[in-house]
Amino acid sequence: MNQQPGMMYVGEKGSGRRSPLAVGLMFWIFCLGVLVEAKRPPKCPLTCSCTKDSAFCVGSKAIPRTFPMDVISLTFVSAKFTLIPAGAFSHLPTLQFLLLNANQFTYIKDNAFSGLSHLQYLFIENNEIQSLSKDTFQGLRALTHLSLENNKLQALPRGIFKDLRILTDLDLRGNAFHCDCKVKWLIEWLRTTNASIAPVQCASPAKYQGHKVSQLPIKDFACITTEFILYQTLPFQSISVEPFGFADDLYVTFAQTNGGNCTFLKWDHIEMVFKRSENISARAAVYCKPLVIDGQLFVIVAQLFGGSHVYRWDDFGGKFIRIQDIDATKTRKPNDIETFQIEGEWYFVIADSSKAGATTIYKWNTNGFYSHQSLHVWHRDTDVEFVQLDGKPKLIISSSTQTPVVYQWNWARKQFVYQMEIPGMLNVHAVKHFRIKRDMYLCLTQFIGDSKVVKWENHKVTTNQVLPSRGTMIAQPLQIIQWHYLVLGSDFSLSTIYLWDAGEMKFARFQDWNLRAPRSFKLVSIDNFDLVLASSFKGNTVIYKHNIVDLSA
């Protein structure tokens, strides 16, 4: 075909080319299609009925992503999905009303309603929800009406309503609330909120069934409990542990009989653990007792072999220096050391478990310690406890050959004199004391047989409680804030922690620790931590942390 002059063709067959006019025409057709598509409203989901600003969905298997652009009201009934994920409605920022009724979902994830800054009405009713998290309603600051009626909620987490600052109406009816510690915060909140709330009743326990939650007595819910958790493991055996403060730092020293050392650890305030610091070489050490006098640090090192000695810390040299030997004729087989102060004078006493030795008191005289008094010879003493009883200093000495003996300080003679025996307990390995309010108690430890807690009153002791304790070398009372504990170590089974029951005025079993041959328990408090250091003769030395647990949270 011949091209005629003056004629313009859109395209030429077989040439594979298009004229500028053809290209321009196609571009405008494309743009027109885009504009038409852009103006077309989103399709209504198949399971929903929609108007310009609302949608009503029945039997939906998921939350659709296509709704009218300016929808402000959305309802789901008999939906088949089992959970509402985070940000499930974030594509509907104009939503003001949301009803979720008679659906099958059981779980609502955190921030499920994020992005709904205009939502005022939220009704989650007649569903299968058993629990909610504290962040379920996070960000719903425009919400005024909330209904959780007829679900399967047994409790609500503390702080779940914290973001609902203008809430005016709340409905929690029809849920099976279990009224224990977890409902305590709700009782308090119901009494202080300005929102209008339909009466909520307890479903359980039987004691409160049918009672209004808001009217439950707060005092009935003792929701603070405690626990001990393993905090730090120290890779060595030890037979005794002693904490002490020196130069504004916290230290502990462990006597390592098998390792031949007094090992010192220092608290690290940054890493919050004890780290190795110093060391005293001590053959067969059974006790490393620190004593700070006028800013000087002394350590009395008691050994089974090689004699016992006194060391002083030399700041200039940065090491411990041996300054004194303990009289070997009196201290042959040391078993325990106690330090104490009377009328401004410092003393220490060593309990000696050798038949030929004697429990001896030493006094500080500015240059060293000298023998002040020997007492209780020939009795194989195993433990000595210093205590203020009836307003007077006393020493209670335990022995493997007789009942515990009490010595009382004589102010005129400036010595301890025999006062009495504690009857009814032979072969007591150790005695420890504790106070509860004004009452004084003693823990009497037996390795074979039962240990006892006795009450001291008017120069008499009466049995308060008997505790099975076969294989026990130490029964250590501990007070942490208002809680009183008794740790009963055991060589044959788990060590047991008892907690004082103020109502029963006795110890109740509280927790077990897995320790190998425990020999000593000491409490330290530092950086808001309460730590129990436990020495082990046959395993690793360990440190437990005391935790306070709020069951109402």
From TrEMBL:
Signal peptide extent: 1-38
A GO cellular-component term linked to this record: synaptic vesicle
PROSITE patterns: EAR (PS50912)
GO biological process, one term: regulation of exocytosis
Signal found in the keyword field: yes
Main subcellular location of this protein, as a coarse class: secreted
Positions of the LRRCT domain: 175-224
Localization of this protein: Secreted
Origin superkingdom: Eukaryota
Assigned keywords, A-Z: Glycoprotein, Leucine-rich repeat, Repeat, Secreted, Signal
Gene3D superfamilies hit by this protein: Ribonuclease Inhibitor (3.80.10.10)
PANTHER family linked to this entry: LEUCINE-RICH REPEAT LGI FAMILY MEMBER 3, LEUCINE-RICH REPEAT-CONTAINING PROTEIN
Protein's name in the database: Leucine-rich repeat LGI family member 3
Organism: Callorhinchus milii (Ghost shark)
Species lineage: Eukaryota, Metazoa, Chordata, Craniata, Vertebrata
